[in-house]
Design brief:
Layout (H helix, E strand, L loop, with lengths): L1 E2 L2 E2 L5 H15 L3 H14 L4 H14 L2 H13 L8 H12 L3 H11 L27 E6 L6 E9 L2 E4 L14 E4 L6 E3 L5 E12 L5 E8 L2 H13 L3 E4 H4 L5 H4 L2 E3 L34 E7 L2 H14 L4 E8 L2
Parallel strand pairs: 3-8, 7-11
Antiparallel strand pairs: 1-2, 3-4, 4-5, 5-6, 6-8, 7-8, 9-12, 9-13, 10-12
Length: 333
């Protein structure tokens, strides 16, 4: 078979050596040096889709989306097959980052996904293809700031590369409730639920759309779980959010975070194969709970505009002043 006038063959030893060295450098964060080697590899074997796939991957790591799109398109032009090829997935991520919706739709469809607004095989589009995708792919978890103080939160998948954050992230992540993040395509961990379903955990690539809603932390005195739940419902009804960080936050090591983990500990003594504590001496990374009685003092995260947050808390207290109090409200993100 001839491509660009060349007979297709196995990549040369020089190509393999440059490519292997480049990925070693990528692992060390030396993207500029890796780029020089991958560019050399593409010059050596320009008819190989892998040459351009590797460059597209590097540009994705660098968040250079224009270059990632250009290299990705060269890669898919050289594919022997298209359906299911990861080359198309990288093109889809780059197109989504650039809000190039016609190309994003084309990429996801070429990968083999059913895309709203596009027919299965040719024919006119069913919806304007320049509008943002809205595929409603269900719930998933996303790991915010995966290279820093990583935090796994819940969200709603808008399309194969974007998640809307529905949890209230801790301030250390630098993220807010309601933000949309661009995420990688390969899950890096899993969360299971008591009801049975499991959900993939995707790694964040970058912030795609910021949220104007600030994050607050407040100390609550909630006599019962029902009092705490009432605040969460009240916030939701107001178009905001409240989350009891005292019960929803767990500290996991990297190995456990990137594995198959239950989304909640449940009640009573709970042991799992990822528990790093010792009997009688639970460590800060242990996943053991002792089924303790309810503690009235709760640290709660609230996502709400400054003009609403105090009124929200006051209204919560007014509904049951004998069992509810709040103090020490602070904006943290």
């Amino acid at each position: 078979m001839k491509i660009f006038g060349k007979v297709r063959h196995r990549p040369s030893a020089s190509w393999r050596k440059a490519t292997d060295r480049a990925f070693t450098l990528i692992g060390d964060g030396r993207y500029e040096d890796a780029g020089a080697l991958l560019t050399r590899a593409a010059d050596l074997e320009p008819w190989l889709s892998e040459s351009w796939f590797n460059l597209a991957l590097l540009h994705k790591f660098r968040h250079d989306w224009e270059q990632a799109r250009a290299a990705g398109l060269r890669a898919v032009a050289l594919l022997d097959r298209s359906a299911g090829a990861p080359d198309w997935w990288n093109v889809g991520i780059a197109a989504t980052a650039l809000q190039d919706w016609p190309l994003a739709r084309r990429a996801w469809q070429a990968y083999g996904l059913k895309v709203p607004g596009l027919p299965a095989r040719g024919g006119p589009a069913l919806a304007p293809d320049r509008e943002p995708l809205a595929m409603d792919l269900g719930s998933a978890a996303v790991r915010l700031s995966p290279e820093g103080e990583a935090e796994v939160v819940w969200g709603r998948r808008l399309d194969p590369a974007r998640i809307e954050v529905l949890s209230i992230p801790l301030p250390s992540s630098g993220r807010r409730w309601g933000e949309v993040v661009l995420h990688d395509g390969v899950p890096n961990g899993e969360r299971t639920t008591a009801a049975g379903p499991s959900y993939p955990v995707f790694d964040e690539i970058e912030l795609w759309a910021p949220s104007p809603v600030p994050t607050w932390v407040v100390l609550l005195e909630a006599a019962t779980e029902a009092d705490r739940d009432a605040l969460e419902r009240l916030a939701s009804d107001a178009g905001c959010a409240a989350e009891d960080w005292s019960s929803s936050v767990r500290l996991l090591c990297r190995s456990c975070s990137e594995s198959r983990m239950p989304s909640a500990e449940g009640e009573g003594e709970h042991l799992d194969p990822h528990d790093h504590s010792e009997p009688g001496h639970p460590g800060p990374l242990g996943h053991r709970t002792a089924g303790e009685l309810w503690s009235a003092e709760r640290e709660c995260g609230i996502a709400a505009p400054a003009s609403l947050v105090r009124g929200l808390l006051d209204g919560w207290v007014a509904d049951s002043p004998d069992t509810r109090e709040w103090r020490d409200l602070e904006e943290v993100c």
